[in-house]
């Protein structure tokens, strides 16, 4: 199927000092009445794959949305500045690109590279991973199953029913831990994977994707 995708690229007068978490904080505060922007409904977290994600590449911000997230971003007005960690960044360029992109099972294998660290382990499978750490094949099989689970979670959030088996082969290695909150660091991975599933470019899968982690880029589509 095809789904709506909207990207907003924001370039400021000087490079942003911060990451996706800082950009998310700004937009979440700006649109407090829309949980799609910040992942909260009142005081409670919304436990589903987010439809709006925030990233920083080369000092510029990228806000990207799919389906309902894409429609919200498309309707959002242009801004004059971003405020990150109490510092204002006047905006030089505010480019919006919206299009329909393919999504779902494919009849061929597609290779993806992680542009940002992938956070795949939760508290439970982290312990399993550590126990299997000396057995490369076992840990790789575990990571592949988790990646398939990430794709299924994303599909459910986007209303796509996966009617056939997802094939996936991963080529991953441990990366430096990532600090997602003060005093909270998580194990992350970098590398590539191949799968028979179409994922939009610059979209993130796995944990903490709204903050920019797990961002993928296709290497052989088309």
Keywords, separated by commas or semicolons:
single chain; 222 residues; alpha+beta; Alpha-Beta Plaits; 2 domains; five-stranded antiparallel β-sheet; four-stranded antiparallel β-sheet; 5 helices; 13 strands
Domains (count): 2
Q: How many β-strand stretches?
A: 13
Strand adjacency order, main sheet: 4-5-1-7-6
| Largest β sheet strand count, sense and barrel closure | 5 strands, antiparallel
Form type? globular
Terminal Cα separation, in Å? 16 Å
CATH class of the largest domain: Alpha Beta
Radius of gyration from the CA trace? Answer: 17 Å
Series of secondary-structure elements, N-terminal to C-terminal: EHHEEEEHEEEHHEEEEE
The helix-and-strand class reads: alpha+beta
Structure overview:
The protein has helices at residues 20-30, 35-38, 68-75, 123-131, 136-157, and strands spanning 2-12, 40-41, 44-45, 52-57, 60-66, 81-84, 87-102, 104-114, 168-174, 178-181, 184-186, 189-198, 216-218. By secondary structure, the protein is an alpha+beta fold. The strands form four sheets. It has a five-stranded antiparallel beta sheet with strand order 4-5-1-7-6. It is globular and about 50 Å long. The mean pLDDT is 93.
């Amino acid at each position: 199927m095809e789904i709506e995708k909207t990207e907003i690229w924001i370039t400021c007068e000087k490079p942003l000092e911060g990451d996706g978490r800082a950009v998310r904080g700004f937009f979440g505060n700006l649109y407090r009445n829309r949980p799609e922007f910040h992942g909260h409904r009142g005081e409670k977290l919304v436990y589903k794959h987010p439809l709006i994600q925030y990233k920083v590449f080369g000092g510029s911000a990228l806000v990207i949305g799919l389906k309902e997230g894409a429609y919200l971003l498309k309707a959002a007005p242009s801004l004059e500045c971003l405020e990150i960690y109490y510092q204002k960044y006047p905006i030089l360029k505010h480019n919006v690109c919206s299009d329909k992109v393919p999504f779902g099972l494919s009849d061929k294998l597609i290779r993806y590279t992680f542009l940002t660290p992938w956070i795949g382990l939760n508290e439970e499978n982290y312990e399993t991973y550590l126990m299997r750490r000396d057995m490369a094949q076992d840990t790789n099989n575990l990571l592949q199953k988790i990646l398939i689970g990430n794709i299924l979670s994303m599909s459910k959030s986007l209303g796509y029913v996966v009617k056939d088996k997802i094939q996936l082969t991963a080529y991953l290695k441990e990366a430096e831990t990532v600090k997602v909150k003060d005093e909270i660091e998580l194990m992350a991975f970098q590398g590539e994977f191949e799968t028979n599933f179409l994922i939009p470019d610059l979209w993130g899968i796995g944990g903490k994707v709204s903050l920019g982690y797990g961002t993928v880029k296709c290497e052989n589509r088309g």
